[in-house]
Automatic annotation (TrEMBL):
Belongs to the CLU family. InterPro entries: CLU-central, CLU_dom, CLU_N, CLU_prot, GSKIP_dom, GSKIP_dom_sf, TPR-like_helical_dom_sf, TPR_rpt. Residues 1-28, 159-180, 621-654, 885-921, 1194-1264 are annotated as: Disordered. PANTHER family: CLUSTERED MITOCHONDRIA PROTEIN HOMOLOG, EUKARYOTIC TRANSLATION INITIATION FACTOR 3 SUBUNIT EIF-3. This is Clustered mitochondria protein homolog.
Length: 1264
C-alpha cells in the first residue's frame, strides 16, 4: 500500500506530493514490514483501448489496487461515462474483475488493455438506467424515510459568498467590518444561500407502462421498456435488450417493441449515447450540467455511503428553492430498479455477514485493510437498514410476532433484523427500576458491544446492535443470532454461560472461559465467583449479567454486555432504595429512577493508572533509599493527570526497571448486586472487592471531578461550547452525566470561567429534563400528532413570555380516529412544564433548580439543544421568545407563514403561503406552530468498531514527528490518511478527525499546501457527518482560517473566522471563554492586512472578554494589553497606547517581577511610547516587538490554534509548536513602528492607508 493508493480517485490528497513521497525510497525502506508483505508499490500508466470515440484513454494505476478500483476509475471519467457493462482484456485474455492488479499476468507500464462491451443482463440494464438517471441529473428530489431534510448539508462552498462580491473594491471594508460582538446568534448563518437550479438535460426518463416484457419477448432478450421525454418535448419508447438500447414503435396506446425503421432508427450499447442521438440539445445541456456540478466541491454532494449524514436542526421552509418537490415518475420505481421484481436482492443475512467478516484473515496488512474496509461498510449498511426498520416499528407499520402481548413486550422481525422496545415489557428489570432501567441497559449494551467489537477477540462474536430513539420510543435492533429463539430440550438452558432467567440459575459452559478471559482482561473485569438460588458457587470470567450463547452455527456469542463495569455504589447508596415488598413509597431523596448506575470504562482505566502509579511507587521504595530523589521527582511528575501519564510511567519504569508483571488490577462487576458469598474465604475476598469498587467511586468524586473543574478554571482544557461537547468532555474523564448536578455545585464559585461552566451545565440539565418529559408525552401519541405535541411542548418551554397560555394545534377531526392516544399534552401550560422539568432535574441530577432557569437571550441555544436531542427539524426563521420582539412584528406569528425571513429582524411582511392551508390557520400569537416542525429524525446509537490499522499508522506517524523523523513521519501520516479513506470511505466522522489532525501536523512540517487542502476537507466532512454547527465544525473553520492566513489569503481567512464566530453565537451565545484566542487571532490577521483601526477594535474586544474571564491582573490580560497598546499606537492614539502599555507593565511587574523579560520589554515600549507621545520625535532602538508574543504566556499571543473541547492547551500547542514562528505578525522593531507613527510610512504599502477615512470608520464602529 502506498500513500498514493487511490491516485485516480478525486478524493485523494495532493497527488503529486504523494507520488514524490512514494518514490522517496529512503522513507519507504523503514516501513520494512509492509514491504516485506510484497506490497512495495508500483505506480505506472496504462492505456485502455475503447470501442467508441475517443478510442483510447490513459490511466495511472497502482498495483496494490483491485481491478474493481480500475473499473471504478474508468466509469468515473467524464469521457467514458457511457460504459457500465464491460470487461477488460489484456493480450486477448479476459481479466478477472475480482483480483488485485498485481495478480494480473503481463500487466506492466504502458500495457494496452482492451475494453470490451458485455451483453446486458436484466440486473445490469436496471443498474445502467439508474446510473444514467443520476449522471444526467434526471433523478428528482428524494424523500428518504431515514435521512431528514437536507441531510448531509455543507455550507463550505457558500460561506462568504455575499462578502466576496463587495470585498474587493474597498480596502477599508473587510469581512469582519460589520461584525457585532454583542448581538445574539442569527439563524441565517445556518441557511444555505439559494443556488441557481441545475440545467435540465431531459424532461423525464422512467420505466414504461409496458414493462416488464411478456414471456415470448423475454426469451428474445428483451429486458426493460423505458419511456423518455426529451427537452424538445418529444416522447420516445425505448427497448433495453441484451445488446443495448433502441427506440421502438410503441406508443402510449399501442404496444410494439420492435425497432423503428430508418430514418428514425436509433440504437446504441449505452443509454447515454442513445440520448445524445435522440435529443439535439442533450449534448450541450449535459455539458453545462457537468460544469454546474463541477463548480462545487465533489465532497459537498457525494452521497454518504459509510456514515449516516448529519441532519440540520433548522431547515428551509417547504416552499423554498432548496426543497422544491419535483414530479418524477421513476422515483416510485426506484426500489424496483434497484432490487428487481422479486425484491429479494436487498434481503441480507446480517448475522452471517457480520460473523464471516469477523472470521476473515488478518495476518497480512492487505488482508487487514480489506477486512476492516468490509467491516466498516457492513456496519454502515446495517445501521442504515436497522434504523429504517426501527422507524417503521415506531410508526406501527410492522406487525408484531406476538400481537397478544402488551405493547412494550412486543417483538418484531423486519429485513432479518430483530426489534424490541427499550422498555421492561416482561419484568426482567423489576427490581432494578423497570422501564427506566431497561432503557439505560439497552443504551449501555450498545457501548458494551462496541467495546467488545473494538477488542476483536478471535472466535468471540457479537450480534449487530443499534438503538434508535424516535418519536419518544426507544427501539433496539439486533441481528438474529441463530438459535436464540430455539426451544431447548427440558433440562437444557437457553443460555450457555452466565445467568439464565434472572439470576436464579447460572450456566458455565467451559468453552467460553478462554474467550471471556481475554475480554475481561482487556476490560479490567475480575474473575469472581457468583452463587445461584441453591447457593451453588460458579466461577465466572465476566459479570453474571453478561451471557454467552452457542449459536446453532457453532459460534460463541457474547450477549447483554451492559454490565462490564461495577455499579457506582456511592451513588446508589445515597440516591436509590430497593423496591419494598408492599409497594410503599420510596423515602425522600432516595428515589433515583433505576439501579443501573455503573461506572464508566474511562474511569476504570484512569483508576487503574492511579493504582499502577501507587504500585510503581511502592516498588521503587523497596528498591532502597539510593534513588530517593528520583522517586520524589517521579511522584511529583505523576500527580498531574493527562494522557502523558502513561508515557511518563513507561519512562519511569524504564529508568528503574520496575517489574510491573506482578501488577494486576481488575474490578468485580457483581459486588453490591445481591450476591451472597458462602465461605469465610469468599466473604473476605468479596469484602476486598467491595473496598476496591468504593475506592474507584471516591476516586471519581474526590479526584477526577475537582481536577476537571480546576483545569477548566485555569483554562488548561478547551472549554465546552454546548451540551454535546460537555457530555463528551465528561465521558472522556470517566464522569457520568448523572453528576451534572454535582458539577453545577462544584462550579458555583466567583470565578467567571466557572460561572460560564455552571450556566452551561444548568442549560444541559434543563434540556435533558425536557427531553425525558417530552419523550414521555410523544411516546403515547401517533405519528400525525408528533409535530403538534412537540410544538406545544416547545411553546411551554420557550414561548411562555409571548403567550402564557399556548394552544396545541392538533387536528380535531383526526383525534377521533385515535381513541387510544393520550392527548393530555394539550392541557399543559408553561408552569406545568417548568414544574415537570424541575422535578426531572431534581430526580436525575440531584440538583435544585430553584431560581435558575433558561437565561434570557439563551433561548436559541436551548432550542438547539432540545431539537438535537429529540431529532426535530424546525423551519429556519427567527423565532420570537420575548414580548418585545413579538410586539415588533404584530403579524409575525399569527399567520402560518414560511419562506426565509431575509431581514435580520423578526418576520415582517411575510405572505401567507396558500400551499399549506391544510392545517387550520391559527390566529394565535405564539412562538411555535405545529407547521414549524417540518420533520422528526431518529437519534441513533450504534456499535461500529474503529479501524485499528488506520489508528496505528496515525499514532506511528505522530510518534515519528515527535521524535523529529520528519520524512518518515510525513510518509506514515499520509499512509494513515490513505488507510482512513480506504477503510471508512471519505465521508465519515473518523476521516474528518484525521483530516483535522493531519492538517495541523502537516502545517507544522511546513507542507502548507497539503495542510490547507486537508483543512478544507475537514470542514466539509465535519459539516456533512457531524453537523453544520457541530463544535468540531466550528474548530475546523477556525483552523482553516489560520492556514488560509498563513498561505497569504488574508481576506478569505477573515471570512472563515467570521463564519466560525457566527456559528459560535448560535452554539454557545456571545463571549465564550475560549473566543479570546479567536478574537485575538482576527486582530492579528487584520494587522497583517494593515487594517489598523479595525484590528484595534478586535484587540479591545478580546481584552474585554479576557478581563472578565481571567481577571484584570492576569498575565493573559497583560499580554493583551501589550498588544492593544501596539494597535492603538498604529492608529496614532498615543495617550491611549501609553495608558494600556502602563497597565500591562504594572501587571507584569506585579506578577512576574522586575527582572522578567516581559516586564523589561513592556518598560522599554512604555518609555518609547511616552517619549513619542510627548515629542513625536524619532527614536530608534532595534528591539523586536514580537518577542513577547512568543513566550508561552498562558499561551496567548500570535496566531494560536483553538484548543479542541476537552483537549489540554498543552496538547494543542505541542501539536502546533512552530506556529508562532510562522507568523511574523508583529516582528517590527520599535524603530519601524515609531517611524510609521511619525508619518514616515514604508514605501511598500500604496493606497492602504487613508488616515482621514480611518477615524471616521472608527467612530462609526464605536457608535454602532
Amino acid at each position: 500500500m502506498s500513500t498514493n493508493n487511490d491516485a485516480s480517485k478525486p478524493a485523494e490528497a495532493a497527488e503529486s506530493s504523494a507520488v514524490q513521497q512514494t518514490n522517496g525510497e529512503g522513507a519507504v525502506e523503514q516501513k520494512g514490514d509492509e514491504v516485506a508483505n510484497g506490497h512495495a508499490d508500483n505506480i505506472f500508466q496504462i492505456t485502455v483501448k475503447l470501442p467508441h470515440a475517443p478510442y483510447e484513454h490513459a490511466i495511472t494505476i497502482s498495483t496494490s489496487e483491485q481491478v474493481q478500483d480500475l473499473r471504478q476509475a474508468i466509469i468515473e471519467t467524464p469521457q467514458l461515462f457511457q460504459y457500465s457493462c464491460f470487461h477488460l482484456e489484456l493480450d486477448g485474455q479476459r481479466i478477472n474483475d475480482y483480483v488485485e492488479l498485481s495478480e494480473v499476468p503481463g500487466l506492466k507500464p504502458d500495457a494496452v488493455l482492451n475494453l470490451v462491451e458485455d451483453p446486458y443482463t436484466e440486473k445490469e440494464a436496471r443498474m445502467h438506467v439508474i446510473r444514467v438517471r443520476e449522471l444526467v441529473g434526471a433523478a428528482g428530489d428524494r424523500t428518504d424515510a431515514l435521512h431528514g431534510i437536507l441531510a448531509g448539508l455543507s455550507l463550505h462552498d457558500t460561506v462568504g459568498q455575499e462578502e466576496s462580491g463587495k470585498g474587493e473594491e474597498s480596502t477599508e471594508q473587510t469581512p469582519l467590518s460589520s461584525y457585532d460582538f454583542k448581538a445574539g446568534g442569527s439563524v441565517k448563518t445556518l441557511q444555505a444561500p439559494t443556488q441557481e437550479p441545475a440545467p435540465k438535460t431531459i424532461k423525464a426518463i422512467s420505466v414504461s407502462p409496458w414493462n416488464p416484457p411478456p414471456y415470448h419477448l423475454r426469451s428474445k432478450g428483451h429486458l426493460l421498456y423505458l419511456l423518455l421525454t426529451t427537452n424538445e418535448n418529444e416522447q420516445h419508447h425505448i427497448t433495453a435488450t441484451v445488446a443495448g438500447f433502441y427506440v421502438n414503435k410503441s406508443s402510449n396506446a399501442k404496444f410494439d417493441p420492435s425497432p423503428r425503421q430508418a430514418p428514425k432508427a436509433h440504437s446504441a450499447h449505452s443509454l447515454l449515447t442513445l440520448l445524445e442521438e435522440l435529443s439535439p440539445s442533450f449534448s450541450q445541456a449535459f455539458q453545462s450540467y457537468l460544469e454546474h456540478t463541477q463548480k462545487r466541491d465533489p465532497l459537498t454532494f457525494f452521497q454518504l455511503s459509510n456514515a449516516i449524514p448529519a441532519n440540520p436542526w433548522l431547515v428551509p421552509a417547504p416552499n423554498s428553492t432548496h426543497t422544491t418537490h419535483q414530479p418524477d415518475l421513476a422515483r416510485t420505481q426506484e426500489s424496483y430498479l434497484i432490487s428487481g421484481v422479486e425484491n429479494t436482492e436487498t434481503l441480507r443475512d446480517w448475522n452471517e455477514e457480520f460473523q464471516s467478516t469477523r472470521e476473515m484473515p488478518k495476518e497480512a496488512v492487505q488482508d487487514r485493510v480489506f477486512r476492516e474496509r468490509l467491516t466498516s461498510k457492513l456496519f454502515a449498511d446495517y445501521n442504515d437498514a436497522a434504523t429504517r426498520g426501527a422507524m417503521l416499528v415506531a410508526r406501527g407499520e410492522i406487525a408484531p410476532l406476538n400481537p397478544t402481548e402488551a405493547r412494550d413486550a412486543q417483538i418484531f422481525v423486519y429485513n432479518n433484523i430483530f426489534y424490541s422496545f427499550g422498555a421492561d415489557g416482561v419484568g426482567t428489570f423489576g427490581t432494578e427500576g423497570g422501564d427506566e432501567a431497561a432503557r439505560v441497559a439497552v443504551g449501555k449494551d450498545v457501548f458494551g458491544v462496541r467495546a467488545v467489537n473494538n477488542l476483536d477477540i478471535p472466535n468471540l462474536f457479537t450480534s449487530g446492535t443499534v438503538v434508535v430513539d424516535y418519536l419518544g420510543k426507544r427501539i433496539v435492533g439486533q441481528s438474529i443470532v441463530p438459535g436464540i429463539f430455539k426451544q431447548r430440550d427440558p433440562g437444557e438452558h437457553q443460555i450457555d454461560y452466565g445467568a439464565v432467567e434472572g439470576k436464579e440459575i447460572v450456566a458455565d459452559d467451559k468453552s467460553f472461559i478462554p474467550l471471556f478471559e481475554q475480554m475481561s482482561k482487556a476490560l479490567r473485569v475480575k474473575k469472581h465467583p457468583v452463587w445461584d438460588k441453591d447457593n451453588v458457587r460458579h466461577e465466572l470470567e465476566g459479570s453474571v449479567e453478561t451471557k454467552g450463547l452457542i449459536g446453532t452455527d457453532g459460534r460463541r456469542y457474547a450477549l447483554d454486555l451492559y454490565r462490564l463495569t461495577p455499579v457506582d455504589v456511592s451513588w446508589i447508596e445515597e440516591h436509590w432504595s430497593e423496591p419494598s415488598e408492599d409497594g410503599k413509597e420510596k423515602e425522600e431523596g432516595k428515589d433515583y429512577p433505576h439501579r443501573m448506575a455503573t461506572l464508566r470504562p474511562e474511569l476504570v482505566e484512569s483508576f487503574g493508572r492511579l493504582k499502577l502509579r501507587e504500585y510503581v511507587k511502592k516498588e521503587l521504595e523497596k528498591k532502597g533509599e539510593a534513588k530517593k530523589e528520583k522517586e520524589e521527582e517521579n511522584s511529583k511528575k505523576t500527580e498531574g493527570e493527562s494522557d502523558e501519564v502513561a508515557k511518563e510511567e513507561a519512562e519511569a519504569a524504564e529508568q528503574d526497571r520496575v517489574d510491573i508483571s506482578g501488577f494486576s488490577y481488575a474490578l468485580n462487576p457483581d459486588v453490591f448486586c445481591g450476591q451472597h458469598p458462602q465461605t469465610e474465604e469468599d466473604k473476605a475476598e468479596w469484602t476486598k472487592d467491595e473496598a476496591e469498587v468504593r475506592a474507584a467511586c471516591s476516586h471519581l468524586l474526590f479526584e477526577v471531578m475537582p481536577r476537571l473543574i480546576q483545569e477548566l478554571k485555569d483554562g488548561d482544557v478547551g472549554f465546552p461550547m454546548d451540551g454535546q461537547s460537555l457530555s463528551l468532555l465528561l465521558h472522556k474523564r470517566g464522569i457520568n452525566i448523572r453528576y451534572l448536578g454535582e458539577l453545577a455545585e462544584l462550579s458555583d464559585k466567583e470565578d467567571p470561567r466557572l460561572q460560564a461552566l455552571r450556566r452551561l451545565v444548568i442549560q444541559e440539565m434543563i434540556a435533558r429534563g425536557f427531553k425525558h418529559f417530552a419523550n414521555s408525552k410523544l411516546r403515547n401519541v401517533s405519528a400525525p400528532f408528533a409535530a403538534p405535541c412537540a410544538a406545544h411542548l416547545l411553546n411551554c418551554l420557550l414561548g411562555g413570555e409571548v403567550n402564557a397560555k399556548p394552544v396545541a394545534e392538533s387536528d380535531a377531526e383526526l383525534k377521533s380516529l385515535y381513541p387510544e392516544n393520550d392527548f393530555s399534552f394539550e392541557k399543559l401550560t408553561p408552569e406545568d412544564v417548568k414544574k415537570e422539568i424541575i422535578a426531572q432535574v431534581a430526580l436525575r441530577y440531584r440538583f435544585e433548580l430553584d431560581e435558575a432557569w433558561i437565561e434570557p437571550g439563551k433561548q436559541l441555544q436551548m432550542l438547539r439543544e432540545v431539537a438535537l436531542k429529540l431529532g426535530l427539524q424546525l423551519e429556519n426563521k427567527e423565532y420570537v421568545f420575548t414580548k418585545q420582539s413579538a410586539a415588533n412584528g404584530p403579524s409575525n406569528a399569527a399567520t402560518t407563514t414560511n419562506g426565509n425571513s431575509t431581514s435580520g429582524k423578526k418576520k415582517k411582511g411575510k405572505t401567507a403561503s396558500p400551499a399549506r392551508d391544510a392545517s387550520p390557520a391559527p390566529q394565535i400569537v405564539q412562538t411555535f406552530h405545529a407547521d414549524d416542525i417540518l420533520n422528526i429524525v431518529p437519534i441513533v446509537k450504534e456499535a461500529s468498531p474503529k479501524s485499528l490499522l488506520a489508528e496505528e499508522a496515525l499514532e506511528a506517524g505522530r510518534m515519528s514527528v515527535a521524535q523529529d523523523q520528519k520524512e518518515l513521519g510525513q510518509e506514515l501520516l499520509l499512509e494513515s490518511l490513505t488507510l482512513h479513506e480506504q477503510i471508512y470511505g471519505v465521508l465519515h466522522p473518523e476521516v474528518a478527525r484525521v483530516y483535522h489532525t493531519l492538517s495541523n501536523l502537516l502545517f507544522n512540517l511546513d507542507d502548507k499546501a497539503a495542510a490547507l487542502e486537508l483543512a478544507h476537507k475537514a470542514v466539509i466532512v465535519s459539516e456533512r457527518t457531524l453537523g453544520i454547527d457541530h463544535t468540531d465544525t466550528v474548530l475546523a473553520y477556525l483552523n482553516l482560517a489560520l492556514f488560509e492566513h498563513a498561505t497569504g489569503n488574508g481576506n478569505t481567512a477573515l471570512v472563515y473566522v467570521r463564519h466560525a464566530l457566527e456559528l459560535w453565537k448560535i452554539v454557545y451565545g456571545v463571549d465564550h471563554p475560549d473566543s479570546i484566542t479567536t478574537l485575538n487571532n482576527a486582530a492579528v490577521m487584520l494587522q497583517t492586512l494593515k487594517n489598523f483601526p479595525e484590528s484595534k477594535v478586535w484587540f479591545e474586544a478580546s481584552l474585554s472578554i479576557c478581563e472578565e474571564v481571567s481577571g484584570k491582573n492576569s498575565i493573559n490580560t497583560a499580554t493583551l494589553l501589550f498588544q492593544t497598546a501596539q494597535s492603538l499606537a498604529l492608529v496614532k492614539d498615543m495617550p491611549g497606547a501609553v495608558k494600556r502599555m502602563r497597565e500591562s507593565f504594572i501587571i507584569f511587574k506585579e506578577v512576574l517581577g522586575v527582572e522578567d523579560r516581559n516586564t523589561k520589554e513592556a518598560e522599554q515600549w512604555l518609555e518609547q511610547l511616552t517619549t513619542s507621545a510627548v515629542t513625536q520625535a524619532k527614536q530608534s532602538q532595534a528591539l523586536a516587538s514580537g518577542r513577547l508574543r512568543r513566550l508561552q504566556l498562558g499561551n496567548r499571543g500570535a496566531l494560536r490554534p483553538q484548543a479542541a473541547v476537552g483537549q489540554t492547551t498543552n496538547e494543542t500547542t505541542t501539536a502546533n509548536r512552530p506556529r508562532s514562528g510562522t507568523n511574523r505578525v508583529d516582528q517590527r522593531s520599535i524603530e519601524e513602528l515609531m517611524k510609521y507613527i511619525d508619518g514616515e510610512s514604508p514605501k511598500k504599502t500604496p493606497k492602504k492607508r487613508t488616515p482621514t477615512a480611518n477615524p471616521k470608520r472608527r467612530t462609526q464602529k464605536a457608535s454602532s
